[in-house]
Amino acid sequence: MNGSAQEVRGARVPPWRNERVLRVLAQAVVLLATALFVGFLVRNLTTAMAERGLSLGFGFLDLTAGFDIAESPIPYRSTDTYGQAFLVGLMNTLSVSAAGIVLATILGVLVGVARLSTNWLVNRVASVYVEIIRNTPLLVQLVILYFAVFLQLPAVANAIELPGAIFLSQRGLFLPAPELTPSFGRWLVFVAVGLGVAVAAGVVAARRASAGRPTRRLGMIGLVTFVAISVGGWLLAFQAPIVIDLPARERFNFVGGMGLSPEFAALLFGLVLYTAAFIGEVVRGGIQAVRRGQWEAARALGLSERQALRLIVFPQALRVIVPPLTSQYLNLAKNSSLAIAIGYPDMFKIGVTMSNQTGQPVPVILLVMGTYLVISLATSLLMNIYNRRVQVLES
Q1: pLDDT values of the chain reduced to their tens digit, one per residue, 395 residues
Q2: Is 176 within 8 Å of 258 (Cβ atoms)?
Q3: Rounded to whole angstroms, how far apart are CA atoms 130 and 30?
Q4: Phi and psi at residue 25, in whole multiples of 5°?
């Protein structure tokens, strides 16, 4: 009896009944079908492009662009190449995306906390804002902001003046801007020295703490030393390393300071308001995911509601907040392509112009798609690194 059982266990399973073989075959069939489908699409694309005299090359990037760009953070003239023009669009996209991510995060956190407020008015205002913004298209919001708000602002002569030398007019938003002086480099030396002292003090304090020895407040001493050296370097400089350049009103426009065009301002405001509504809900959900006992433990320690949120609850909520927050950052960067509706020269708008002038739509589309893909992958990589740092490690 035992011998027959051993023979059955030792019998070789036929390939058509072996689960491992069947899994490999299924994956091979799916992979082959996918490759055939992709090959069919590529063949059709190349055939259609050849019939119309088109190509997949990117040689047109070295040709003269021949068109101006209204806003350019880097030097650009119409005699530059299409590659330089595309780089301008990329820089415009990155600038509005970076500023939008920072501002949307700040506003979104405030909205998320306000949604949990026990104050009825604060809670209702935040709820109405979230419901209105989340349930209307971003494109509609951008059009309203640009045509019904920014273009309806008064002329330069009657510009709205806000506290802090901030002006709003049909020309855009004008803000004070920091300006570096020749002594800035010398001041950086003092800052570097102070930072080195602070880091060294922190390392020594950490080693003493790990060895069970008193830290003697070395971390605080290092921080005070850093501030003292930085302030001393500022005072010893021949002139202030950084001065504030204020915008000044002239007859037709403002000079000095930092000016944001109506197109950039409308796009930035729209992206921030729209994305912050979603981030607010992400933050609210993350805070509510923290166990109620954490609040009770914080109160038992004598912490106020604000201290409990900042020191106990919010750090734990980050492990729930960060993954969906990454998606919102990616959406903001991709939604910036709606700038074409209000005339802001982002990467997509310049890509459309390049496509129309060169007659090479497919390479331009591939270039734009590939660039957005790189931006998204880089953002995801950074957020995933941060996500691993805030995750709670369970032993």
Answers
A1: 455 555 555 557 777 777 888 888 889 999 999 999 999 988 887 887 777 777 777 888 888 888 898 888 888 898 999 999 999 999 999 999 999 999 999 999 999 999 988 889 999 999 999 999 999 999 999 999 999 998 898 888 888 888 888 888 888 888 888 888 888 888 898 999 989 988 888 888 888 877 777 777 777 888 889 899 888 888 887 788 888 888 888 877 888 888 888 999 999 999 999 999 999 999 999 988 888 888 888 888 888 788 888 888 888 888 889 999 999 999 999 999 999 999 899 999 999 999 888 888 888 998 999 999 999 999 999 999 888 887 754 44
A2: yes
A3: 43
A4: -65, -40
- State how far the alpha carbon of 250 is from the alpha carbons of 69, 216, 228, 244, in Å: 24, 58, 41, 19
Rounded Cα distance between 375 and 94, Å, is: 9
Q: What is the DSSP string of 70-85?
A: S--SS---TTSBHHHH
* Residue 161 identity (one-letter amino acid): E
CATH match of 82-127+270-390 with 1.10.3720.10: yes
Whether the full predicted model's pTM is greater than 0.90, yes or no, is: no
